[in-house]
Amino acid sequence: MRKFIQKMTFSLSYVGMFFLIPMMLLTTGEVVGRAIWSRPIPGSMELSSYMLAIFVLLGIAYTHQVGGQVRVTMLVSRIPEKAALVLQVLTTLLSLFIIGIMAWQGWVKAMEESTVSDMLRVPQFPFRMLVSVAGLFLFLELLLDLVDSVKKLIRS
Predict the structure, then answer these.
(1) Which end of the chain is more exposed for a tag (fewer CB within 10 A), N or C?
(2) Mean pLDDT in residue range 25-34
(3) In sequence order, what are the residues at sequence separation of 6 or more whose Cβ sits closer than 8 angstroms to the Cβ of residue 99?
């Protein structure tokens, strides 16, 4: 199960990364269009914000998987290992609670969503649903961390 979750998280991050290149090209085209011809690309800000949301949301769980998030170890490095593990379990449980609410509310908001964007008339539903998908995979990654932390705590 662990391998499947990690592989899915990795795959989702690749989907998110796929949107990075078009976003960069669109932004470059926007800058060049404004600088040379004084004509922006219609809807480029809207599209860029959607692609950025996709990139960020689909990369959150993978960032956690590889330990790419910022950690402050000033306190944890000074306490006994068992206490640090207990603290890790507690913070992971709190994170699971918060991310669980985020995934649940993302789903609720997505199901209620019927609006479209102002300029390009892009439906908002898929982007609201991404919050729930990202939350689900981050929840699963945190659950894997919780299992590992509890195993370490039991062994120590």
Answers:
(1) N
(2) 93
(3) 135, 138, 139, 142
